[in-house]
Design brief:
Length: 175
């Protein structure tokens, strides 16, 4: 797995790794299940997902999954993904999805992580970052706005759920 580590001095994002499983399971709550994963995690499911994430890094697949980390011990407080080749996205668009555990919320950490991965997405050739959120997920929409994204319309997901789009130009993005 590549040695990717992005930091702004407060937040560090680095690839998810097998030893993140326990912290992820401990941090998951109803909000993460509702807005991000769609169902409660199991130890087996998290381990399989972390293996998939590692394989995506190793094979240069369309997913780049990062842990959001804070402090000198780099405590895992959430996750953030970049995905290319997502249904409904135009060439050059990169989907950004994130979730914080309760211990990380309300401190601006998601906004910082979004800015870090946007800079990384630009180095991968991304031209525009897209954050898609359900209209009721006001906290996620607020993160998008604080990170410089602008409203970009509303579509229906494949499951019929309405999604508000937030867009950010990545050309020239360094952070």
């Amino acid at each position: 797995m590549p040695d990717v580590k992005l930091s702004d001095g407060t937040v560090t994002v680095s690839p998810l790794r097998p030893d993140d499983a326990e912290a992820h399971l401990a941090g998951e709550d109803d909000a993460l299940v509702r807005w991000l994963s769609g169902g409660p995690s199991t130890p087996e499911g998290v381990e399989a997902y972390l293996r998939h994430c590692r394989e995506q890094w190793e094979t240069a697949g369309p997913l780049r999954a990062f842990g959001i980390r804070v402090g000198v011990d780099e405590e895992l407080v959430g996750t953030i993904d970049l995905r290319v080749s997502v249904e409904g996205l135009a060439p050059g668009q990169v989907n950004v999805a994130y979730g914080l555990y309760p211990s990380g919320r309300g401190r601006g950490l998601a906004t910082r992580a979004v800015l870090l991965v946007c800079g990384y997405a630009a180095t991968m050739g991304g031209k525009e970052a897209v954050i898609r959120v359900e209209p009721e997920n006001t906290a996620s929409a607020a993160v998008a706005r604080r990170a410089g994204f602008t409203p970009g319309g509303r579509t229906r997901g494949s499951d019929g759920t309405w999604l508000d789009w937030y867009l950010r130009d990545l050309r020239g993005a360094t952070r």
